[in-house]
Inverse folding.
């Protein structure tokens, strides 16, 4: 398949009627089918584990904790898992305190599963809620997309930042695409949601945390991971921030190869998250956790 003119075009096609299901185009990119199959096999292994049949709530709880730790690490608050488990005060001394970042990640993973029904009808409402949870009282612009002239606390400053008008148009296009529904694999949809939100940085702060939480909502709501036991954030953290940014740059390039590379990177993160929960299952089976 030749080069795309950019993911922006693919997303906006959903509002012009040029394609009934534009995400399917991305699902057909070279290598994406193999990534989808590999993800499905990894998730099936977790759900087929004998411990999952008896103790899935425990696995889900542990996955949420580890996912929050991974997401916070990608946003610069790289705490040990036991530190996250032990701490109870996440208010932090100031807005840049890592404790606040960890607390925000924990709030997001705790509530993401409660937003599925709203997501299907209004993704923008869910994104606003996620930002409200992440930012809490740190920013008067909480819960709404940025406006012209407003600064962004940008952890992805290496990437070009669309102006507020372009951001708003693309965000609306993404929302329309999601509400219309797609037959594309869940991995593809989650990767596009994740990548678009990082590319657009629609909020004044916490865009990384919000984007990763939104991707989790897609994976759970799609039925790929209905019990939320595959902490994809763990997989992204394990691959490292450098690889994360490189894959994101590929996505932002808008080329077919770049977008396929990002989707494959996201697929590997799901696989690593599934492996993490498989290890938790085995530890519970041994009575070691």
């Amino acid at each position: 398949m030749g080069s795309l003119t950019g993911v922006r075009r693919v997303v906006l096609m959903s509002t012009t009627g040029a394609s009934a299901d534009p995400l399917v185009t991305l699902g057909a990119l070279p290598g994406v089918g193999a990534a989808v199959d590999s993800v499905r096999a990894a998730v099936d292994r977790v759900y087929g584990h004998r411990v999952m049949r008896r103790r899935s709530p425990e696995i889900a709880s542990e996955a949420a904790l580890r996912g929050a730790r991974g997401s916070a690490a990608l946003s610069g608050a790289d705490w040990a898992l036991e530190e996250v488990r032990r701490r109870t005060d996440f208010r932090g001394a100031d807005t840049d305190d890592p404790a606040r970042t960890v607390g925000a990640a924990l709030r997001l993973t705790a509530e993401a599963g409660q937003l599925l029904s709203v997501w299907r009808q209004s993704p923008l409402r869910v994104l606003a809620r996620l930002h409200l949870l992440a930012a809490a009282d740190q920013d008067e612009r909480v819960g709404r997309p940025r406006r012209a002239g407003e600064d962004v606390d940008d952890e992805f400053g290496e990437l070009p930042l669309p102006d507020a008008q372009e951001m708003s148009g693309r965000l609306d296009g993404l929302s329309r695409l999601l509400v219309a529904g797609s037959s594309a694999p869940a991995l593809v949809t989650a990767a596009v949601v994740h990548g678009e939100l990082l590319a657009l940085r629609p909020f004044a702060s916490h865009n990384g945390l919000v984007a990763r939480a939104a991707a989790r909502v897609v994976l759970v709501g799609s039925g790929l991971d209905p019990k939320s036991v595959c902490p994809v954030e763990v997989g992204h953290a394990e691959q490292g921030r450098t690889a994360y940014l490189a894959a994101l740059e590929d996505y932002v390039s808008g080329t077919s190869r770049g977008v396929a590379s990002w989707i494959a990177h996201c697929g590997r993160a799901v696989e690593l998250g599934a492996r993490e929960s498989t290890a938790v299952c085995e530890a519970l089976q041994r009575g070691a956790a």
Notes: Residues 7-286 form a domain with the Fic-like fold fold (CATH 1.10.3290.10). The chain has a mean pLDDT of 90. Residues 256-286 form the longest helix (31 residues). The chain is about 65% helix and 0% strand.
